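HOLO CASE FILE
Compound: FE2/S2 (inorganic) cluster
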Amino acid sequence: MNITINGTSRIVNAGPLTPLLHVLREELDVLSPKAGCQQGGCGTCTVLVNGEPRRSCLLPIAAVEGAEVRTVEGLASGGKLTPVQEAWIHHYAAQCGFCTSGFLMAATAYLEKGGSDDHAEIAAALGGHVCRCTGYVKIYDAVAAAARGESFDLATTAAGSRTTIRGVEL
Ligand code: FES
Ligand code: FES
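Model generated. Tokens follow.
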């Protein structure tokens, strides 16, 4: 079977009912989708299928044959992060990062459909995504900033995050 991941056609040896999540991580070395609950309840495995967020843990690969699958690996281009990825960094929207890939793909779908910076609408679009580090407000802030078209100098963000303890810059 052939499936298209981030614009590249890939040959897959797994059986047609194998979950896309397993094929991505174990056969194709696409590691951004994470195996969380593996029951459709946490969103950490979310990828885009023809532009729509889908839980890859529940999706047999037979269902994506001929479709365009996108993951975080396909977001940045030419070494340049997408605006929402930059906003994620600027707003410190990732803590441990386990949920980040799923959130980013759902946020990307929301923004590509012209989503606004309204937190209630963002929360609805990201509904069902779980962040154990409870970073929801910063995540919503990042998506809202991207919706407003804000851009960031990440070198400044990094400099602003430094702190000094007993004269030592960390
Ligand atoms: S791992 Fe797919 S929804 Fe949780
Ligand atoms: S940043 Fe840790 S689970 Fe979301």
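CASE NOTES: The chain has a mean pLDDT of 93. Strands lie at 2-5, 8-11, 46-49, 52-55, 68-70, 164-165, 168-169.
CLOSED: yes
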